[in-house]
Amino acid sequence: MASLFEKDIMTIKGVGAKRAELFRKLGVPSAGALLRFYPRAYEDWSKIVPIAAAPLGEICTIRAMVLRKPSEQRIRSGMTVYKVTATDGVSDVTVTFFNNRFIPNLFQEGKDYLFRGKLTGGLLRREMSVPEFLPAEAGIPVRPVYRLTEGLPNKMVINAVTAALALLPEQIRDPIPEELRERYGLCGLREALEQIHFPDSVESMQEAKRRLVFEELLVLQLGLFRLKQRTREGSKAVLQKDYSEEFFRLLPFSPTKAQVRAVREAMSDMQGGTPMSRLVQGDVGSGKTVVAAALCYSAVKNGFQAALMAPTEILAAQHVQSLQKLLTPAGIRIALLTGSVPAAQKRMVVEGLKTGEISFVVGTHALLNEGVEFLRLGLVVTDEQHRFGVAQRSALAEKGDHPHMLVMSATPIPRTLALMIYGDLDISVLDELPPGRQPIDTYVIDSEKRPRAFGFLQKHIRAGRQCYIICPLIEEGQGDMASVETYAAELREKWFPHARIGLLHGKMKAREKDAVMESFASGKIDILVSTTVVEVGVDVPNATIMLIENAERYGLSQLHQLRGRVGRGKEKSTCILVSDAQNEEAISRLDVMRRTTDGFRIADEDLKLRGPGDFFGAKQHGLPSLKIADMWADVEVLRQAQESAREMIAEDALLENHRALLAEVRQLFGRMGEDAMN
Ligand code: ADP
Ligand code: MG
């Protein structure tokens, strides 16, 4: 099986250079990859309808006997029509094909065929144009439907997969040890591959799927365990002394119990001899930054360098600002390194990190740049980790000699699941909000009530508060600047002639964004009209109203993040969701927002309503993307796979007796897997 991954897709019968290119586009460069190119759905041809009863214009399957040899008629040059007349015993149907000279040989008089397509025509004369068809004697299939690209129809993929299956050697070594297959009742690899592509029945397809899901999750877990072991190698960054108490005294408030606990857990990691790999999970506003800052402070005081990586320039700039305020009295200077920092300053920062003169740096992806080197990097913090991949978080760590690693996430997921997904991390949970927070009131309104909502905003602006309005119709990156600007202009003219309105969208230069954010944070802007770029992390406690236009367009977790921008100070905050959506799903989604502000419950509901696929898109967790497993639906299999992986690693840490699995781990994790295995 493994060797089939070395067989170029061109070795498959019927795949020439042109089609090979299309297959590569689908991420299928080899025969092996084609076998692992699982169908995205299945067509069940078993629901056969009588011709007379079939609904017109909808795809259906009929079974009919061919009455006579197909007729052939040239209607104009370059166009030949083939007609096949068939009957199901009650009604007749005329099936039409064009320019396919093989048709006369594909049908035999007196034989039954299955036809799948759209029926048209009158009561007496049913027709089907260019349907898919199969001889009925071949059995009634559950047919695979593949992800396609233009120029590569499903039928062609089916043929190629059939040819690839024929290449499987008689004896294939199953990567899953027999003992495990027996324990969990999993079918063999050959059967799984055959049945996932061309199932005999729905049940056998499900069995094949369960086995392949197990295999994929086993490989994922093995990879994560390996990563965790690697990071357990000796750390040179042992912190001798815990300075977190000293840091807490710099704060204008007392830390919550949860913050103190998380800091203590992380400190005990960093004072031991192995590098920390820890995830801090906490709902929006739970104060993760304080935890990170306490740890960076301790690292710096112990003579190490600390680096904090944020997903956006706005967030990085804001972290520097708030941390600088705290740490200036302690004599610690924080450097900022982002793409838009002026070149001269950038050079100074890079130089300072190399010589060790700078001990604390906050930045974006720019920190990952090749030129950036550290003298003695002791701690790496990644904020809003779901915006980064596993690879990126370790890329920053690789700039030091096994530094400690802390990742912070506001994507709330149940602890048991988090443990499995973040197999390579220990977890601290901030399950408590800072005191004095008032719950945010949430209203769902339709656009007719917008004037009243604007009146409400007006009142609060007069009282000195600030508001966010998340603009309709704009998706980040699409750069629909005009509509943000038009929308803002209308607000200015029609609704808020006296308010100071600022604009923020993805297409602005980072420096412009920073300037706007800065004015908003310092109270020079009353209303910030923005796209979802403010979604993560931004903290302006005086902003108390979040109005979201077209709220139905966003996922619950995203709405929760957006709403988390308010309710950060002592004043009562309000979230207004504007939506004219009529469909039930959207209405119930918005209703969840109205009923609860608990991120964990919202994540749960999000799953129930949207399905796991969306929630666990690679974007959310940064893991390698999986082909078949879906972690929520397959949580039982995930548990089994995790247990198996743990056993295997305990016995055979290098996977020397499980070469085939090792190869799969490398494939799934790409270059990272290689590193982890060395
Ligand atoms: P998040 O967990 O969403 O990243 P932040 O770290 O941005 O949250 O903190 C949210 C706000 O709460 C900030 O304004 C911060 O100063 C404040 N904060 C954090 N911890 C406390 C605390 N223990 N008491 C009072 N306010 C706090
Ligand atoms: Mg944050």
Provide structural commentary.
This protein is α/β, with parallel strands linked by helices and 678 residues long. Helices cover 40% and strands 18% of the residues. Strand 3 and strand 4 form a beta hairpin. Helix 6 (189-197) crosses helix 7 (202-231), helix 19 (584-595) runs antiparallel to helix 20 (599-610) and helix 24 packs across helix 25 (671-677). The chain is globular. The structure holds adenosine-5'-diphosphate and magnesium ion. Magnesium ion binds next to helix 10.
Brief summary of the model shown:
The strands form 4 sheets. The protein has a 7-stranded parallel β-sheet with strand order 12-13-11-14-15-10-16, sandwiched between helices. A 6-stranded parallel β-sheet has the order 17-22-21-18-20-19, with helices on both faces.
Describe the secondary-structure layout.
Layout: H1 17-25, H2 31-35, E1 41-44, E2 59-66, E3 71-76, E4 79-87, E5 92-98, H3 103-106, E6 112-121, E7 126-129, E8 132-135, E9 142-145, H4 154-167, H5 178-184, H6 189-197, H7 202-231, H8 244-250, H9 257-271, E10 277-282, H10 288-301, E11 305-309, H11 313-327, E12 334-337, H12 343-355, E13 360-363, E14 377-382, H13 390-397, E15 404-409, H14 415-421, E16 426-430, E17 441-445, H15 450-462, E18 466-470, H16 481-495, E19 501-504, H17 510-521, E20 527-530, E21 543-548, H18 556-563, E22 574-578, H19 584-595, H20 599-610, H21 612-615, H22 618-621, H23 635-651, H24 659-669, H25 671-677
Parallel strand pairs: 5-7, 10-15, 10-16, 11-13, 11-14, 12-13, 14-15, 17-22, 18-20, 18-21, 19-20, 21-22
Antiparallel strand pairs: 1-9, 2-4, 2-6, 3-4, 4-5, 6-7, 6-8
Helix pairs in contact: 6-7, 7-23, 7-24, 8-10, 9-10, 11-17, 19-20, 24-25
The site of adenosine-5'-diphosphate has 18 residues, from α10.
